[in-house]
Amino acid sequence: MPPLIFRKGLDLKHEVADVLAASYHSELVGHIKSDGYRYSAGRVTIHLAREFGFCYGVDRAVDYAYQARRRFPDRAVHLTGEIIHNPHVNNELRGQGIRFLSDSGASIDALGADDVVILPAFGITIEQLQQLEARGCTLVDTTCGSVLNVWKNVRRYAAESFTSVIHGKYRHEETQATASQARGTGGGGHFLVVLDRAEAGHVCDYIRHGGDPRAFLDMFRSAISPGFDPDVHLQRIGCANQTTMLSSESLEIGNMFRDAMRERYGEAALPDRFRAFDTICSATQDRQDAILALLGAADGPDDRDWRVQQQQYAESGQNLRQPAAHLPCRRTWLLPLGPPDCPPSCRPVGRGHRRGLAAGRPGLYRPDVRSLDAGQYRGAGDRPDRRARQLLTASCCEFPEQPPLRSCYRMCLQPLQ
């Protein structure tokens, strides 16, 4: 008998809504959003990105995980790994007794029919799914719809004997899952993962001019399908991407491969040699656009004295920094998400700095400070610019045990390289 799989929730959305709101919603962020996504105090203005908070796929995955715990209170509930790359969310789930199969000593082999397993937002490989099905586990599938769209396209590539060229990080769970889908129904499909334009350029050069296959295989030895032969499997290619990669780079890489195939085989041969479907995640694109719009909202380069972006554990957050990194700005800082240690190298904020730009993350934003009332901040004074600095400091406090404000009135800022 096939295992029971929940793919559209567990009919407990309303029952967990209050718990989710208490854990992940913030009056502070709500106040800033309602006031035009900005907050001013004295000499400091905080701008909030208009796309800020959980994207739909992350919101759905976390919701399903909470529903699963509520639906099966007396059964062991597991996650194959982190549901999203966000320490606070994963710690909250651990606190509910949800176990992680990625932890030391945990194994799929120990599971049975009484176990419930939650599949993360970025999916799992076909091999992992088959293992879980063989053990009869009840499955709660939170795989994001944008990821499923990528899988649909790479399976189509395999069926039509096209090699899937995936823009992504081959060690990332989503890319590993997509690569397994690119093998196709019979497992005979092929894939190649390229990290960036530089790696894509090496592949394009090989398409155009050929080269040493052994050197090619050595360069991409961890990012290719078994039995990959560049002289054979680069003759027909289809492009896809890890959904959290920088969308502009994914599109540029697709154009690079289109040009290489055109130069090698001619324009007339492109329909039989090259495929490219839109697998850009709309939420990722919206957040990248919001970063650019946020920076463009300033009056000019002189008003962009510095900007603050929250450090990301997720790939999407790391990639969100890229479009902002090259825009005019006298100083760019990276605000740690974890509890800051306030090292000796930290720099004072506020004196001589007129504008701060706080860019939102696509995943969790949960400051422990829920109000703009300066009296809630430890040691808060009356100066409005100090209250703004305290607000910025509080925004990086993700962990409940972290005091909302460091009494030194300094933010631990690191230069963004």
Notes on the protein architecture:
This protein has helices at 13-24, 27-34, 56-71, 87-95, 126-134, 145-159, 173-182, 197-209, 213-219, 230-233, 247-265, 270-273, 282-296, 315-325, 384-394, and strands spanning 5-6, 38-41, 44-48, 77-79, 99-100, 116-119, 138-141, 163-167, 191-194, 237-241, 274-276, 306-310, 331-335, 355-359, 414-415. It is of the alpha/beta class and 417 residues long. It has three domains: 26-55 and 283-415, 4-hydroxy-3-methylbut-2-enyl diphosphate reductase, catalytic domain (Cobalt-precorrin-4 Transmethylase, domain 1), CATH 3.40.1010.20; 56-143, 3-Layer(aba) Sandwich (Rossmann fold), CATH 3.40.50.11270; 146-280, Cobalt-precorrin-4 Transmethylase, domain 1 (3-Layer(aba) Sandwich), CATH 3.40.1010.20. Strands 2-3-14-12-13-15 form a six-stranded mixed beta sheet. The protein has a five-stranded parallel beta sheet with strand order 1-7-6-4-5, covered by helices on one side. α1 packs across α3 (56-71) and α13 (282-296) packs parallel to α14. It starts with a strand and ends with a strand.
Question: What structural keywords apply?
Answer:
417 residues; alpha/beta; Cobalt-precorrin-4 Transmethylase, domain 1; Rossmann fold; five-stranded parallel sheet; 14% strand; flat
SSE blueprint:
Elements: E1 5-6, H1 13-24, H2 27-34, E2 38-41, E3 44-48, H3 56-71, E4 77-79, H4 87-95, E5 99-100, E6 116-119, H5 126-134, E7 138-141, H6 145-159, E8 163-167, H7 173-182, E9 191-194, H8 197-209, H9 213-219, H10 230-233, E10 237-241, H11 247-265, H12 270-273, E11 274-276, H13 282-296, E12 306-310, H14 315-325, E13 331-335, E14 355-359, H15 384-394, E15 414-415
Parallel strand pairs: 1-7, 3-14, 4-5, 4-6, 6-7, 8-9, 8-10, 10-11, 12-13, 12-14
Antiparallel strand pairs: 2-3, 13-15
Helix pairs in contact: 1-3, 6-7, 8-11, 13-14
